[in-house]
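User: Structure with BIS(adenosine)-5'-pentaphosphate, tokens only please.
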Amino acid sequence: MHRVVFLGPPGAGKGTQAAQLAHELGVPHLSTGDLLRSAVAARTPLGLEADGHMRAGRLVPDDLVLKILRERLEQPDAKAGYLLDGFPRNLAQAEALGKFAELDRVVSFDIVPELLVRRLSDRRVCPTCQSVYNLSSKPPKVPDRCDADGSSLVQRPDDRPEAVTTRLKVYAEQTAPLLEYYRTRRLLRPIDASGTPDEVTERVRQALR
Ligand code: AP5
Ligand code: MG
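Assistant:
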């Protein structure tokens, strides 16, 4: 059973690594950011409430995030394990998760802020299939077009500089304390998240052994 959390600052590569490792482990990749962005795109009541918080780079209120995550965890594919990306993000969420799930590992992504800012400012996403690109490390074959479906690539609204500054601050104040929380519970496996995506994947594999 793999019940794993990827913990790390915005732009650390959690989503990139989760897509690869969830496939290898045979468990679903559950990103609260992706679930919330789908709700925003579908204009559900929850999505409409989350939208302003996300654009500004603030955390979405815990009750909304917990609702969307619990619904997802109840689906049959999550019964045999999951890889959580972007949850929990504060102490209250970690404690709520602890009440309904027993984790096996928490992999934390260590990386210097300068690299995060560069990765986030260069990120582009496909609005149709959600594929993620990077102007410097993973450019599309044709500039500004998705390799898979040819859609025009866009920048995530929260990858604008003002929102990035807020997200980094929110991470330091609210999420970073979870490193100690999981270290004392002997679940934490820190990895160096700099280097190429393949190098990082190998470090995550080692951390999950
Ligand atoms: P979320 O979507 O979770 O965003 P995040 O945590 O800020 O992280 P990112 O998705 O920006 O980065 P990532 O680590 O996944 O990096 P990626 O692999 O894409 O959350 C967004 C918002 O939703 C939050 O701000 C909040 O409002 C809300 N939210 C979500 N969860 C919540 C919760 N639990 N509670 C409350 N609110 C919540 O990589 C980044 C870029 O770098 C890409 O372009 C990629 O191609 C590139 N890259 C990746 N790895 C490498 C590498 N090794 N070398 C070079 N480039 C690389
Ligand atoms: Mg992500």
